[in-house]
Specification:
The complex is a heterodimer of chains A (about 200) and B (about 180). By secondary structure, chain A is an all-alpha fold. Chain A contains 7 helices and no strands. Chain A has helices at about 5-10, 20-30, 30-50, 60-100, 100-130, 135-160, 165-195. In chain B, strand 1 (about 110) and strand 2 form a beta hairpin. The chains are: A mainly alpha (about 200), B mainly alpha (about 180).
């Protein structure tokens, strides 16, 4: 039998018996050259294991923690906001249907438009799925601040829903417009960074 | 897989980490930061990719630590996330990984005893990415071919052949080839 190939020697190091292993072992037992080749292979593996550990040049914990904290906050806010905003939207629609004066209709249409824009931006963010992406520390911090401000706005929106109808629509329109502005900025933060790093 | 990295007070730390305690999560990060980065750097082409893998891995750890049930070692769990993220990064980057290209560009850098030879670190660095990933995961991290095939979405035979090819090249580049009469 000719000498064992490197494939065969590598296979001999595996646990369990594969086809041909017995014959190969038999050859190995009587062949000093193949034994030496196997020793060199084992020494190479030992040297690989002994290579010094490479360490990161920069501490990544701040970025990881910032992103993880933002993700937890977004999850909490989503659950809280889903109920509140759904009720707010339903209430707004009911109120708008009952209003007949031109000025009120104009405001209602404007609120509708701005809510639709808000939903559209939410969908863009959802499709981009920032939670599943790597984010640098600066982006995570800016995104976190924007999300905080959106959360504050959502609470204000809930409060405004409880106000007297005469004062409500103008405030709603202002808050929804502000919300769209913040969402726009948030989309910019994520997508601009994404395009910069070539996602 | 042996558990070379141990987190002291792991039960307490884990319990707090599962509740979202940032200090406990940082303890986990500090315990495994270097081995995760080392694994990522050995598999990925660039420092930047390895840093991204480090960040992605620990973001996933923070997000999913509630799902770790303690069946295996914590390091084993963290390492499987890191390996998976590093291999995903390889797939995404789609670097060219052809024999011809590597033979062309990966020339030995040092002459010893009249032959061409490079040190192990340089030789490992010059392996094609897939071969390097397989040799590292198998020979150093201790994954089986079945586990590597599963993580790479390839066959067991593929993993075995990549390992053998990697050793053929390492042997040549390290000047360890000896004629067997």
């Amino acid at each position: 039998m000719s000498h064992l190939s490197l494939d065969q020697l590598v296979a001999l190091r595996e646990p369990g018996a594969e086809p041909g292993t017995a014959t190969a072992r038999e050859h190995l037992a009587g062949c000093a050259a193949c034994q030496a080749e196997l020793r060199r292979l084992e020494q190479r593996v030992a040297r690989l294991k002994a290579l010094p550990a490479l360490r990161p040049a920069r501490d990544q914990w701040a970025a990881v923690n910032s992103r993880a904290t933002a993700a937890r906050r977004v999850r909490r806010l989503r659950w809280a906001a889903v109920g509140g905003l759904a009720a707010a939207a339903a209430l707004t629609l009911v109120v708008l249907q009952r209003r007949t004066e031109t000025a009120q209709v104009t405001t209602a249409v404007a609120i509708d438009d701005v809510m639709a824009r808000s939903n559209q931006l939410e969908r863009v963010l959802e499709a981009y799925n920032p939670d599943a992406r790597v984010t640098d520390g600066v982006t995570a911090r800016v995104a976190g601040e924007l999300e905080d401000r959106i959360a504050v706005l959502d609470r204000e929106l809930n409060t405004v829903q409880m106000q007297d109808a005469r004062n409500r629509d103008a405030a709603l329109l202002r808050l929804w417009q502000e919300r769209v502005g913040l969402l726009d900025a948030l989309v910019d933060v994520h997508l601009t960074r994404a395009s910069n790093v070539g996602f | 897989m042996n558990d070379a990295y141990v987190l002291s007070d792991s039960e307490v730390v884990l319990s707090r980490a599962r509740a979202g305690d940032a200090a406990a999560l940082e303890r986990v990060y500090r315990a495994y930061e270097t081995p995760v980065y080392n694994l990522a750097r050995r598999i990925c082409r660039t420092v930047e990719d390895a840093e991204d893998v480090l960040q992605e891995t620990f973001f996933e750890v923070c997000r999913s630590i509630g799902q770790y049930r303690g069946d295996g070692s914590l390091w084993g769990w963290v390492r499987s996330i890191a390996a998976s993220k590093a291999l995903m990064r390889l797939r995404r980057n789609k670097y060219r990984d052809t024999d011809e290209l590597d033979e062309e560009f990966h020339r030995p850098t040092m002459k010893v005893d009249g032959g061409l030879r490079m040190d192990l670190e340089a030789a490992l660095e010059r392996l094609p990415e897939t071969s390097r990933a397989v040799v590292w995961l198998h020979d150093v991290e201790g994954y089986t071919h079945e586990e590597i095939a599963g993580m790479m979405g390839k066959t067991v035979s593929f993993s075995k052949s990549q390992l053998a090819r990697a050793h053929t090249r390492l042997r040549r580049w390290l000047g360890e080839e000896e004629a067997r009469a």
